[in-house]
Design brief:
Keywords: Membrane, Transmembrane, Transmembrane helix. This protein has one domain. Helix content is about 70%, strand content about 0%. The chain contains six helices and no strands. The radius of gyration is 28 Å and the shape is rod-shaped.
């Protein structure tokens, strides 16, 4: 006959995700997922027409003629958006 002690089973009863309600509230939220997948999508959505908008409006050639203004202007437009 094999005896099972209740002391060994008590730790298994409380072992689980729902034991700590503060941790269970957020679920299995992973910041690495946000950093790797959602942040690049957000950057693409924010800056998708920055260069093409300048070309379509006809300002790209004018800005290319100015010395050093092209990159500085793009950086300013990114900061404003």
């Amino acid at each position: 006959i094999l005896r099972v002690r209740a002391l060994g089973l008590e730790a298994q009863i409380h072992d689980g995700d729902s034991y700590n309600p503060e941790l269970a509230l957020a679920g299995r939220f992973d910041y690495a997922f946000v950093l790797v997948f959602l942040l690049p999508l957000f950057v693409i959505a924010l800056l998708f027409d920055l260069r093409s908008g300048e070309r379509e409006a006809g300002r790209a050639r004018m800005l290319a003629a100015l010395p050093g203004a092209g990159t500085a202007l793009l950086v300013r437009r990114v900061a404003v958006r």
